[in-house]
Amino acid sequence: MKITCGTDIIEIKRIKESIEDLGEKFLERVYTKKEIAYCESKKKQKYQHYAARFAAKEAIFKAISSKLSNKYDIGWKDIEVINDQNGRPHINFLNIKIEEIDEIDISISHCREYATANVVAILK
Ligand SMILES: CC(C)(COP(=O)(O)OP(=O)(O)OC[C@H]1O[C@@H](n2cnc3c(N)ncnc32)[C@H](O)[C@@H]1OP(=O)(O)O)[C@@H](O)C(=O)NCCC(=O)NCCS
Q1: Structure confidence by residue, pLDDT tens digits, 5-29
Q2: Axis-axis angle for helices 33-40, 46-71 (nearest 10)
Q3: Rg of the chain (C-alpha set)
Q4: Sequential DSSP letters for 28-74
Q5: pTM here?
Q6: Which residue from 108, 112, 113 has its CB within 8 A of the most atoms of ligand 1, so it is best to mutate?
Q7: Ligand 1: distance of its center to the CA of 60 in Å?
Q8: I need a labelling partner for 80 at 20 to 30 A (CA). Which of 39, 92, 93, 111 fits?
Q9: Is the C-beta atom of 109 inside 6 A of ligand 1?
């Protein structure tokens, strides 16, 4: 058993500019339909939530290491961050089962300028 962690922080402005410049093309490349629905439901605050999910995906890549992400060729949309009824975020891997991961958990935070995500994984 091995415990690994990954973290990422991102300027919300950067994600807002990508969405404004590239629109659907950017959203559809990075986010799943459920993630887009969640962020869009936040109306004016949506960029914080999009940025948080971008940071989340980067943090997951870091936690599982480049070795595993290359082995499984994981793309942005193979990872989905979904909130439960209490608002707590959870990670879903879509169309992919990473045998080496026993447990994985995430925590997200954002303010007006930055979004951050921390991931802890237990690998076999
Ligand atoms: C849940 C709570 C902690 C979120 O705090 P916040 O400062 O508004 O949250 P941040 O802006 O830092 O982060 C937002 C993220 O928190 C996460 N979050 C929301 N509810 C959560 C919960 N119940 N558990 C874990 N994470 C949660 C989400 O990922 C959210 O981002 P997302 O909507 O983009 O996914 C807060 O709303 C709350 O309920 N506080 C209670 C505090 C308390 O009872 N303290 C007593 C001592 S423990």
Answers
A1: 999 999 999 999 999 999 999 999 9
A2: 160
A3: 14
A4: HHH--HHHHHHHHTTGGGHHHHHHHHHHHHHHHHHHHHHHHHHHTT-
A5: 0.94
A6: 108
A7: 19
A8: 111
A9: yes
- Say if residues 8 and 58 touch (Cβ distance below 8 Å): yes
Residues 66-99 have pLDDT tens digits of 778 889 989 999 999 999 999 999 999 998 999 9
Residue 3's contacts (CB-CB under 8 Å, 6 or more residues apart) are: 120, 121, 122, 123
**Residue numbers of the domain that contains 78:** 2-123
CATH number at residue 65: 3.90.470.20
The helix or strand, by DSSP H or E, that contains position 16, with its residue range, turns out to be helix 12-22
- Count the residues in the chain: 124
